[in-house]
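Translate structure to sequence.
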């Protein structure tokens, strides 16, 4: 399996907008489940070198190592960037041994 950590900056994303996004996009692409929690983040814009501090939502999910899983993650990230005018969604990825 692969474990993804996705970091969603929420400087301009309300709680209701996040809830709608999670229900409509995250759940649709990760129907077997995921974990989401609040965090405080800091990020430097590579173009302006400006540091921003903002509320962040972190999603952790373990999925099969497959093209379908990679596509689901890409759809989530792409939709968030597009919907909320974000430059990026931070991502870490590691192989794990998992069972549910």
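Result:
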């Amino acid at each position: 399996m692969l474990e993804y950590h996705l970091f969603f900056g929420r400087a301009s994303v309300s709680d209701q907008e996040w809830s709608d996004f999670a229900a409509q996009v995250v759940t649709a692409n990760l129907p077997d489940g995921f974990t989401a929690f609040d965090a405080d983040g800091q990020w430097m814009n590579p173009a302006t070198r400006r540091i921003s501090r903002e509320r962040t939502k972190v999603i952790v999910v373990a999925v099969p190592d497959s093209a379908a899983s990679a596509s689901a993650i890409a759809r989530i990230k792409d939709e968030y960037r597009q919907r909320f005018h974000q430059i990026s969604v931070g991502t870490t990825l590691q192989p794990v041994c998992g069972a549910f």
